[in-house]
UniProtKB/TrEMBL annotation:
Signal peptide: none annotated. The keyword Cytoplasm applies. GO terms for biological process: aspartyl-tRNA aminoacylation. Residues 124-169 form the Aminoacyl-tRNA synthetase class II (D/K/N) domain. This is Nucleic acid-binding domain protein. GO terms for cellular component: aminoacyl-tRNA synthetase multienzyme complex; cytosol.
Length: 179
């Protein structure tokens, strides 16, 4: 079965599909588990009723945020799901990689009755772990806007008969001359 990107899942309601991505959020309670799976195109809620799928409980218990998984399951509509009213009921969950605890807090997390509040890491810490920080929706939106703008400028200039030239790095040229 071929992978389906999350933004294409809404066309597959009632069908069984395979999705892959990072775990953005995981709520694992006694009877239910909710996984928010994220790929480059969007987010999808995976809902597991543990009583119906006891074979998945062990797999779910080992998952951590930012782990990478492949999920095969049926796409269904659910008005209670905030992510477009669509969720997936999994038949199988395959763990691609388990993520260690993140070295930074990408977002501030409000306190609940069971957990203390978590402050967002400082800019210095986030810069040290930039590859983790870049996974936030805000940062990805900036890169998508930048890609769109650069593509539009490139297309405009090519339509005006400009040519794109890639020159060597100036620092490397200068270092060669000094030697």
């Amino acid at each position: 079965m071929n992978r389906t990107y999350i933004n294409e899942v809404q066309k597959e309601i009632g069908n069984t599909v395979k999705v892959q991505g990072f775990i953005e959020n995981l709520r694992n309670s006694k009877y239910m588990a909710f996984i928010v799976l994220k790929d480059i195109t969007g987010k999808l809620q995976i809902t597991v009723e543990k009583e119906d799928h006891p074979d998945l409980v062990g797999t779910i218990d080992q998952l951590t945020p930012d782990s990478v998984i492949t999920v095969t399951g049926k796409v269904v509509e659910n008005d209670y799901v905030k992510m477009g009213g669509i969720e997936m009921i999994p038949e199988a969950i395959e763990v691609e990689s388990i993520a260690d605890a993140l070295p930074i807090a990408r977002k501030a997390i409000a306190a609940t009755k069971k957990k203390k509040a978590v402050e967002r890491s400082s800019i210095d810490q986030r810069i040290d772990y930039r590859w983790v920080d870049l996974r936030t929706d805000e940062n990805q939106l900036m890169f998508k806007a930048q890609s769109c703008m650069v593509n539009a400028m490139r297309k405009f200039l090519l339509d005006q008969n400009f040519i794109e030239i890639h020159t060597p790095n100036a620092d490397r040229c200068c270092q060669r001359e000094r030697l």
